[in-house]
């Protein structure tokens, strides 16, 4: 079962203190995906957020626009780097959260000795509470997660609506 934490990262104006966050590691991954299968039936709007270990490469060449450059910068770094966290928050069409857990934060295997990263990003993430030793020891293997996610009803489902926000300036200006 999950340890619930009511401290969200939503802007102060929209924080709902009844919202619950579940930290997902290898040991509770399958159990929490089962719970998500139940939640998604009535709460089919999913807000998504990710944490990556910074910017380690910059694209070279000519670009049609600044937006094209920013996209290529983001793409090449996402292709090169390992994801650290994926957050999914579920709500219905009216923006209401399910009772109990509404956000699942998936924590992936990440090794500071072996994986690429930008030092300034790791320092910021550490200050923000990311526990890299725990990610190394208890983090979810990304390929196993992908396999389970594909059968969870979260992806490849016409009724699911994905919400995200544009983070490229925060990610790309590093």
UniProtKB/TrEMBL annotation:
It is found in: Cytoplasm; Nucleus. The keyword Disulfide bond does not apply. Belongs to the CAF1 family. Its EC number is 3.1.13.4. It catalyses: Exonucleolytic cleavage of poly(A) to 5'-AMP. Transmembrane segments: none annotated. The keyword Plastid does not apply. Its main location: cytoplasm. It comes from the Eukaryota. This is poly(A)-specific ribonuclease. GO terms for cellular component: CCR4-NOT complex; cytoplasm; nucleus. GO terms for molecular function: metal ion binding; poly(A)-specific ribonuclease activity; RNA binding. InterPro entries: CNOT7/CNOT8/Pop2, RNase_CAF1, RNaseH-like_sf, RNaseH_sf. The gene is CNOT7. Pfam families: CAF1 (PF04857). It comes from Nothobranchius pienaari. Coiled coil: none annotated.
């Amino acid at each position: 079962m999950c340890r619930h934490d009511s401290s969200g990262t939503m802007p102060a104006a929209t924080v709902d203190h009844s919202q619950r966050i579940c930290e997902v590691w290898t040991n509770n991954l399958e159990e929490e995906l089962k719970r998500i299968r139940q939640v998604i039936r009535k709460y089919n709007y999913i807000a998504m957020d990710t944490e990556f270990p910074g910017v380690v490469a910059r694209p070279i060449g000519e670009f049609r626009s600044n937006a094209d450059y920013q996209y290529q910068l983001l793409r090449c770094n996402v292709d090169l780097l390992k994801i650290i966290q994926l957050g999914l928050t579920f709500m219905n069409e009216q923006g209401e959260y399910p009772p109990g857990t509404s956000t699942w934060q998936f924590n992936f295997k990440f090794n500071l000795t072996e994986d690429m990263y930008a030092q300034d990003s790791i320092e910021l993430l550490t200050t923000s509470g990311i526990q890299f030793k725990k990610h190394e020891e208890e983090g979810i293997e990304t390929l196993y997660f992908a396999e389970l996610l594909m059968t969870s009803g979260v992806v490849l489902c016409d009724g699911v609506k994905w919400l995200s926000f544009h983070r490229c300036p925060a990610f790309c200006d590093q």
